[in-house]
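Researcher: Next entry: 3-dehydrosphinganine reductase (Arabidopsis suecica).
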Amino acid sequence: MAAISPFFLLFLIPIVPLSILAILALIVRPRPIKIPIKSRHVFITGGSSGIGLALAHRAAAEGARVSILARSAGKLEEAKKEIQLATGVEVATFSADVRDYDAVSKAIDESGPIDVLIVNQGVFTAKELVKHSPEDVKFTIDVNLVGSFNVIKAALPAMKARKDRGPASISLVSSQAGQVGVYGYAAYSASKFGLQGLAQALQQEVIADDIHVTLIFPPDTNTPGFEEEQKSRPEVTAIIAASSGSMETEEVARKAMDGIKAGKFTVSCNFEGFLLSLATTGMSPQRSFWLAFLEVITAGPIRLIALFFQWDWYKAIEKWSKTKTK
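Model: Predicted structure:
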């Protein structure tokens, strides 16, 4: 039998990755899309502070007609003045609790047809599950998950009925705690993990209407809510969270808006988040065949990195537990 030439083997080496790329280029769905922002109606829940307010600033600065919804009428008025002072744009404000479907539906009807919906409201309390009251858990899930259903359900009929307005977008602001469970975040992680299933199913339901879903995974972000949460979070939660660091709201808003405009399904906000998205991509849609290729070839190494993080976290928990039993 003739020996196989080393040059032939070298020729074969690039064939496998190129073949994978070619297959992925054919099968990735949905197809790439661009979502325009200028001169379009952007509706943001939780828009009176934190990431929502930063997103409202950015949308207004990019020439959008902006509406923001939150519970506090006072905070909404402050946000409206702040945005107008910074951008010269007067935003519309709506006071409603996302847990109240009728109130949300009324606000959305009054605001007019929406082109870009950003579902951003969220509450969280870092506390071991055994210390959570049933009311705490219900409140977290009702605001973060059920509230998201309410907002989308209220907005969807008009978004589906729009004609000749270009591609539309529905974005859900989750959390890195919606990709991996974290000590002290049982209720919060459950509410944010639920957004993943909602987003995946919703994208299949609305793709025929040229509506594109984006799921955003911020890390700890320096918002008023985060500052309050830090005062009472368990010690182990603080140790684990320190491995990822935190970001400023403006930077998270920039990453989020860029992802929305690029039509991405998954938006990570920092390098750790990007690795986390690779490790947890599962059945998530992927528009970019290059990123799909990266997900395929890094599946093993990324899983190893994920196991290393889990080892580090559990080691911290074990160390903390021993100090508590002394």
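Model: Note for the record: The longest strand covers residues 211-217.
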